[in-house]
Amino acid sequence: MCGITGIFAFNLVGKFNLVNVTAATKALEKRGPDNQTIYTDEFVGLGHRRLSIIDTSAVAHQPMWDESKRFCIAFNGEIFNFPELKKELQQRGVTSFFSDSDTEVLLKLFILEREKCLNKLNGFFAFCVYDKQEQSFCVARDRYGVKPLLYQFDDDKFLFASEMKSIVAYGVEKEIDYTALHTYLQLNYIPAPRTIFKNVKKLMPGHFLEVKKKSLQVKKYYSIPYTSNQQPSTNSYDDAKDKFKQLLETSVQRRLISDVPLGSFLSGGIDSSVVTGLAARHKPNLHTFSIGFRDEKFFDETNYARLVAKHFNTEHTVFSLTNNDLYEHVHDILDYIDEPFADSSAINVFILSKETRKHATVALSGDGADELLAGYNKHAAAYRAIHAGWKESAVAALLPLWKSFPQSRNSFISNKARQLQRFAEGMKRTSKERYWRWAGYASHESALALLSTQAKENTNLQEFDAYKAELLATIPERETINDVLLTDMNMVLPNDMLTKVDLMSMANGLEVRTPFLDFELVNFTFGQPDEFKINSSLRKRIVQDAFRDFLPAELYNRPKKGFEVPLLKWLRKEMRSLIDDELLSEKFILDQNIFNYPAVAELKKQLFSSNPGDVHARIWALLVFQWWWKKWGK
User: Fold this and answer.
1) Which of 279, 273, 247 has its CA nearest to residue 521?
2) 3-state helix, strand, coil in the chain (%, to 5)
3) Pairing relation of β-strands 123-131 and 150-153?
4) Residues 565-619 pLDDT 10s
5) Alpha carbon of residue 461 to chain centroid
6) Please, are residues 342 and 620 in contact by the beta-carbon 8 Å criterion?
7) How far apart are CA 125 and CA 123, in angstroms?
8) Can you point out the beta strands (E) in 358-477?
9) Same domain for 121 and 49
């Protein structure tokens, strides 16, 4: 697990940027605190910051060359099946290895098979292989986007990096992509391949690119094997449960390989509890970590986490936090975010990662299970919309009533009114528009209203429509739950959930591994029908039923609470001066000329009203953008 960056200069103008490789590499130091190595030649520069996990010796440092000195790799990630791949290489005559690292195995497999090797890799990764003889780069990203990869390409050069701050260190032009900004104001994140800057792109999950002779080609090597109305890959639900259990246990076992201390996040929910229990089978004295919220008992799940830890006999550590403890980290997080990203649960992930890093360098997590197996409220809502009856029709018909109630997340009644309104609005939309609205916080119209006249003129709405259509291409006119989950796996998972975990864990030099995203498990799960994942009373059905006899009974029939922070309280109190006097003040907004102050003022007014709804998420998105703009965007 590391930070990588590089440049391929095509001419003398591009060569001027070679001097920035050192700064671009240093910008990634939190991702890789253990070592920095840089390679440069006449037209190429590669930089690597290392977090040592597999073979911690110096011979495994990167950029790594093969013995012929023709091929060089800069690699971020882990290849969990590298011992098997190494045996395969040995059987094919590759018998000389100078390290015990997965990096060397990947490099030598690539030399033999080039991009075809990608389909053999079980793990997560972003890497670049430089062929010095052919003068080419091959850059690849893992199947589901666990590891990030950004790039910039023009007539003079090609740049890539793990994070935007490294790209910025090359001195690239920072022109805001207003189509991306318009999308951000709706979703609170920017989906690939766009970024906040026009000339910088994200490599899509399951893709690789080739740079040779001043040309760039982007190609797909993987997509989730799913088509609507396909036949299930097993004969019965019981068979599917057994296969799911076997695949998940194998996935967890693969992810225990490490030459440094390894533990597991344990929230007390089903997903992390299953991962922890399976890991404990194969790793005695497993260390587990959770955070609790002393001031927010409704969201505190540490009693369940302790119950699971006792059940599986793990060495458990609880980090018990106050709201003030959480708030103390907000500025550090805002400083680290180098592209607007406004999922507020990133604060919790940052703190959990920071505290866990004091005890371990690697942590397992349950991330990906909700998107794979229908674990969110929106999935239950989608199921009801797809199978709508008289109750759902009645809720939709009563939309004016739900709108009349005060709405917020602060109490059961106001939150229920908020949910009923969202559901009723969704029932009146097409399948694509319903998905888009339930995936975000603001409508197209309300997001557009936030932009200044100049910003609106710079927003190409035809371009936005095409971008949105591509993101929603897997939602048909009459959707199934599997269609919804496929879209989540392609859009929400890599661009929100995995971005959050990667950014916040790597800010603390911690590697997080996600067993639910083993490609064999994902491929199998998408071969199963909707009803194996969700029904009218149970979400994530197959994992809950498969491990019912394995987990403590107390974990069942309890509400899903999520991983939230008291954002509304902070915005109304601790962060009020930031809103009123600084980042969202009238003077700042008018001088900046990106946002429409009257529309911002309306959001501020709603924030401090008795009917805030989801406005705190929209205000947070504005604050994150403004903080980013001051530091990175100017």
Assistant:
1) 247
2) 50, 15, 35
3) unpaired
4) 778 888 998 899 999 999 999 999 999 999 999 999 999 999 998 888 889 999 9
5) 26
6) yes
7) 7
8) 362-364
9) yes
